[in-house]
Amino acid sequence: FEEANGPTNCYAAISQVDRLQSEPESIRKWREEQKERLEQLDANSRKQEAEWKEKAIKELEEWYARQDEKLEKTKASNRAAEEAFVNDAEEVFPGTEWERVAQLCDFNPKASKQAKDVSRMRSVLISLKQAPLVR
Question: Is the model's pTM score more than 0.70?
C-alpha cells in the first residue's frame, strides 16, 4: 500500500535511500545529465510540434481562401455562360441549327480536356453538318 507522497513502509524508504547513496558518483552524474538531455529533447519536440501546428493552420487557411476564390470564379463564369446560352436559345432562326450545335461542341481535339475519346462523335457531327439528312 503506497500513498501519494511515497511508500509507508519505513524499511522500503530506507532501502531506497541506501540504494541511491551506494550509487557511484559517475552513475549519479550520468543519470542527472540524461534527465537534463531528455527534458531538453522534450522541450524541443514540443516547440517543433507547436511550430508545425501553426504552419498547418496557415496553410489550411490559405487553401480555403484559394478554394473560395476558385469557386467564386467558377460560379461567375457558369452564370455568364448560362445567360449567354439562354439568350442564344431565344434567337432561333431556321437554318442556324448546325451553327448552334457547333457552338456547344468543342471541335478542337487538343483543347479538349475530356478523358473519353469523342473523336467518332466529332466526325459524325462534322459529316452531318456537311451533308445533312434529307427527310
Answer: no
